[in-house]
Amino acid sequence: MYWDKKGYSFRNFPPGVLPGTDEITGRKLLYDKEDLTENRSLGRKKRDIPNVSSYCFNELHMFLRIKSCASHFKKSTFRGFTSTTYRLHEKTSNHEAETHFGFKSVPESMKETLVGQVFSNVASKYDVMNDAMSLGIHRLWKDHFIRAMAPGPGTKLLDVAGGTGDIAMRFLNYCKEIHGDNSAQVTLLDINPHMLNVGKKRFSMTPYEKTSQVTFEVGNAEDLSSIPSNSYDAYTISFGIRNCTRIDRVLDEAYRVLRPGGRFMCLEFGNVQNPAIAPLYKMYSFQIIPVIGQLVAADRDSYQYLVESIQQFPSQDRFAEMVKNAGFTVVGDGWENLTFGIAAIHSGFKL
Amino acid sequence: MICSPIYPLRAAAGSHFLRRCMSTNAPITKLQKNLLAVSSAFGAFFDPSRQDMIATLGETTGSIFLSRLRDDMLRDPVGRRILKERPVVNSKTIDITYLRSLPEGAFGKEYTKFLDMEKVTPDSRVKVQFIYDEELAYVMQRYRESHDFFHTLTNLPTNIEGELALKWFELVQTGLPMTFLSSMFGPLLLPSKERTRLFCKYVPWAIQCGSQSKLLMNVYYEECWNRNIDEMRKELGLYLLT
């Protein structure tokens, strides 16, 4: 076991087991398991403990338990160790239902607040960051999404987690340009008022401000009780569903508000299966995107959450299962990969 | 699903828990650190008003120089006390109304005069994000927070010239790479007349004064509010630019 010169990272050993020394002051250090992360490096050195023998004994005991558990794990990578470590801890923590927030585990009731904070922080730079992170490709995805939807004239769309209004804008433009139609309606719904304000500002610079084609509403995708059942022709949720606490509830509400024959469409990040692209994509997401977030939006934490939440979201086939379970009829696989699976369009019909 | 680590956080009340949940546990990797250092250097150069770029540059390039600064603080008894007690400078810990009520010539009074003139508050400093040693993170935070105190003591204005002069001063005192980069490339932002003036007047002063005065990081500013500022300057070995 050794600590590298900076004292930041370690190699090959489960954390918190053996003490190291701070190179500069020569003090013995131990660190807290809670600060470990996906990146295989040390979070924070928490304690200076002069007499480490008793602490070490406890840690050694834990280490031996971990080692015996590790053999049950198929993956004996570093990640496997930490997962076991924390499974052992989870039993003793409080019993409120927990969900993931990126790679952290938080009580379910808190996730909404945390996600709200993230989006309030990024709202002003959201569009700029989207362009920077995806190198403008998100525009192509959204264009393709609307063309795949191919709305007819007079469609009523509920754009949930619409935020800054990319999808709503494209929907109205499509109806106007392809059908010459000015009767399409879109309700832009978002749980975060800051994002909605950015959307309002964007729409105020378009001709749609004068017409009554777009309405803005603050609402929670999991609880659309203000919206009557069977009232919309199409429902879209674009890059929003992975931030919801209970995806099944979102899908149930989507099913309820759509009229029979209505279409549910979801644009979301997915798993990249291509073995050549997957490691490059992973490296790009975890190394480059938080750096761009720090440079452009001065907020690395929110973009770290973003890339972690992409990892936590179910894969395309699992999500298609969830869509089917909500009652939607799915054609074929139910999903279409975009850009090697970096994004995917899911579609279901209420029949 | 991939076996990704899920670790429970200690249940703590209120906004502290929220803030802890919000800030990611993932430390930056070497690649990210290098990328950030280079890009924040360019960012800070092309947009000097972005405090967070300068802050990021300082944190990512700190490395051994920050440890040296910490060791310099450890060599002085007051510096040791600062490192032990870790006082923080923000609007909650500083009673600005009391400082305003102090007599003219007191350090606290001069400080509030500076804050009012430049229309800044003690809260305007970016938090340290990328330094993972507690003590070094505190040294960096203290360095940032003391910047306003340096302005008060050296009586330099906060225009680009004054800031660059102060950066040269800090370069001589602390030796941090961020100060070095700002000192080298910052003058390029000045028009040529100001630049010559900087190098003829301010920089020689900064180098001379910086090397002869005591390390300003070792001053416990929170205990000096009542003291006469000229007396403080004499004690520290500072002399003002004429």
From TrEMBL, chain A:
Keywords of the record: Membrane, Methyltransferase, Mitochondrion, Mitochondrion inner membrane, S-adenosyl-L-methionine, Transferase, Ubiquinone biosynthesis
Its membrane topology: Peripheral membrane protein
Assigned GO CC terms: extrinsic component of mitochondrial inner membrane
Enzyme Commission number(s) of this protein: 2.1.1.201
Keyword Transmembrane: no
SUPFAM superfamilies linked: S-adenosyl-L-methionine-dependent methyltransferases
Pathway annotation from the record: Cofactor biosynthesis; ubiquinone biosynthesis
Enzyme class, spelled out: transferase
CDD domains named in the record: AdoMet_MTases
Entry GO MF terms: 2-methoxy-6-polyprenyl-1,4-benzoquinol methyltransferase activity
Binding site for S-adenosyl-L-methionine: T164, D190, N220, A221, S238
A Gene Ontology biological process term: methylation
InterPro entries: SAM-dependent_MTases_sf, UbiE/COQ5_MeTrFase, UbiE/COQ5_MeTrFase_CS
Annotated function: Methyltransferase required for the conversion of 2-polyprenyl-6-methoxy-1,4-benzoquinol (DDMQH2) to 2-polyprenyl-3-methyl-6-methoxy-1,4-benzoquinol (DMQH2).
Protein family: Belongs to the class I-like SAM-binding methyltransferase superfamily. MenG/UbiE family.
Protein name: 2-methoxy-6-polyprenyl-1,4-benzoquinol methylase, mitochondrial
Native source species: Acaulospora morrowiae
TrEMBL record, chain B:
Pathways involved: Cofactor biosynthesis; ubiquinone biosynthesis
Subunit-structure text: Component of a multi-subunit COQ enzyme complex, composed of at least COQ3, COQ4, COQ5, COQ6, COQ7 and COQ9.
InterPro entries, A to Z: Coq4 (IPR007715), Coq4_euk (IPR027540)
Gene: COQ4
Predominant localisation class: mitochondrion
Any one of the GO CC terms: extrinsic component of mitochondrial inner membrane
Stated name of the protein: 4-hydroxy-3-methoxy-5-polyprenylbenzoate decarboxylase
Similarity-based family: Belongs to the COQ4 family.
Annotated membrane topology: Peripheral membrane protein
Residues that, per the record, bind Zn(2+): H147, D148, H151, E163
Stated role: Lyase that catalyzes the C1-decarboxylation of 4-hydroxy-3-methoxy-5-(all-trans-polyprenyl)benzoic acid into 2-methoxy-6-(all-trans-polyprenyl)phenol during ubiquinone biosynthesis.
Pfam family, one: Coq4
Record localization: Mitochondrion inner membrane
